[in-house]
Protein: Phosphate transport system permease protein
Amino acid sequence: MRPGDRIFSGVAKGSGILIVVIIAAIGAFLLAQAIPSLVANKANFLFSRQFIAGDPDNLSFGVLDLLLVTVYSSIVALIIAMPIALGIALFLTQYAPRRLARPFAYVIDLLAAVPSIIYGLWGAAVLAPALDPVTGWLNSVFGWFFPFSTGNVDRGIGQTIFTASIVLAVMVLPIITAISREVFDRTPPMQIEGALALGATRWEVVRTTVLPFGKAGYISASMLGLGRALGETIAVMIILAQAAGVPFGWSLFDGGDTIASMIARAAAEFNDPRSAGAYIAAGLVLFLLTFIVNAVARSFIVGKKEYE
Structure:
């Protein structure tokens, strides 16, 4: 092996090991900071719906509602974003003229460059009022179904999980679209040309070759988008109205807090290690949840020779 190859190999291996060490150090730090507060906690950490950490001598906190709101809003965002991202990726790789596909892809990618605080302000000031007629109709017609039942905050202000999920969907759209686009673009040309030679229409080519080839990559991209949605902080904090002690009831018109938004909202309580430890414990749950989602995303493409 030539010296340049050895140097490059060493740098690559070192970078990989460094990332693993940093992630392990973050996990160890969170655990070390959280343990004293967890020991002093008077509530069940996993199943309690209240989170009282302002008084260090009387800690009583649990993450059940926070975890449910985090996962619920992220999954709704993913349900909205996945079909849109799939349509955009297929359009850019299979239907759009090359001279149009590239600038259109840049526009989609630019969505990832918009600061989350801008998304939050747009969601609270523009999107929430605009959605009022839609949410009112959904609540009056489908209110018997729990996702559209009356929530624990005033639906008229629009600062609900429904609004937050739409904003999250816009925020994860570039991730899912970009990865799906790259995967679909790597469909072997021989398979596409073979299907066309047999008389298949463009849609039949997409259905029989592009989608089967890119399915694992598309699912993996969606899982990475889910990880992005789970950890979003500022936009969700601006949009969601606090529920004033009313528990989460599985309605899209509920308010509340995700784990990340609650930690950001309570930054003033970090002056005491025990109070800060309670929030770090909640952050540890989010860390593990994101780690699991990313591991699942990785598992979809492991062993797929076409992606190696």
